[in-house]
Amino acid sequence: METRELQLDEETLARARRLAASRQVTVEELIKEALARLETPAATEDPILGMFSDVPELMDEIVEEAMQARERHPLRSGG
User: pTM for the full model?
Assistant: First the structure.
């Protein structure tokens, strides 16, 4: 592992430390997690879908339920 110096202003460093402490991880682990989340395609393409990236099964259920509701109650009637 390589050691690098990172310069942050005091406010940013304090925020990173508070967030890391609240998640019970180190600042280094917090940075790794943030980078991993930023690399997730859903998070970069659509911030709303990105919120569900950790629970794909839930998103599948939501979509399925929406499609069933659409079949039962169409918004438009053909005519």
Answer: 0.49
CA gap 21, 2 in Å, rounded: 24
Can you say whether residue 24 is alpha, beta or left, with left for phi > 0 and alpha for psi between -120 and 50 degrees?
left
Per-residue confidence at 52, pLDDT binned at 50, 70, 90?
Answer: confident
- Total number of domains in the chain: 1
In a domain, 36, yes or no: yes
Spatial separation of the C-alpha atoms in residues 46 and 42, rounded to whole Å: 6
Tokens of 71: 């079949």
**Structural domain containing residue 60:** 10-72
Residue 50 and residue 37: Cα distance in Å, rounded?
Answer: 8
